[in-house]
Design goal:
Length: about 210
């Protein structure tokens, strides 16, 4: 667990803030946490950890709102910061939208790693049956695939790298995720499909993970 946390902190320092890891972590990650909170529009705090000031529920709601604000329609392409023609500005707006989505996601996951275990909740505690039902319907309506497959994809490092691309397919997925809770868990329990077990006969060989 300590190694995973250190890896996440290093990723945040180098990717999200383009900051040298040693410098960013010299104060126990407090400066990094302040920047992450700013990305999620959370009140600033100078606490060394998030233990006393933030719960998983609060962080999750802040992330949902921040993810929605990453939609390309909220990026101002006419303020002079995005150069070029209308077509260029559309592409630039789309790319900036994708970049911002990944930044707020990494900020959310970084702050989540700092929350006191007593303030953390399982997916079953966080996700209501109504919310899960809505997410399952949206997965079918938007993507045409089961919500369990979407949840498993969100945890896959290769999928996350693909999501950073600027293809039409990746853009479609990002728009869906921005409007549906980002990369945070949205199911109370996830059915994991073993590799090579797609098809009508796969149901009996699935395992449920909590």
């Amino acid at each position: 667990m300590q190694r995973c946390r250190a890896c996440l902190q290093r990723t945040m320092a180098q990717r999200l803030f383009s900051t040298a890891y040693d410098g960013a972590m010299s104060d126990g990650g407090a400066e990094l946490a302040l920047r992450a909170r700013k990305l999620l529009n959370l009140p600033s705090t100078h606490a060394a950890t998030e233990q006393e000031v933030l719960s998983t529920k609060q962080l999750r709601l802040a992330y949902f709102q921040a993810a929605k604000m990453c939609h390309p329609d909220t990026i101002d392409a006419d303020n002079g910061s995005l150069p070029g023609s209308a077509v260029d500005k559309k592409a630039a707006r789309r790319q900036e939208s994708a970049n911002q989505f990944m930044r707020v996601t990494e900020a959310y996951e970084f702050l989540l790693s700092r929350i006191n275990p007593s303030k953390k909740y399982s997916a079953s505690d966080l996700v209501s049956e109504k919310e899960e039902g809505e997410f399952r319907r949206n997965c079918q309506d938007w993507l045409g695939i089961p919500a369990d497959v979407v949840e498993e994809s969100k945890r896959c490092p290769l999928f996350r790298e693909w999501l950073k691309g600027n293809t039409d397919a990746a853009h479609h997925w990002k728009i869906f995720l921005m409007q549906n809770g980002g990369l945070a868990p949205r199911l109370r329990a996830t059915v994991l499909v073993e590799a090579g077990e797609e098809g009508p006969g796969a149901t009996s060989r699935r395992r449920r993970s909590r």
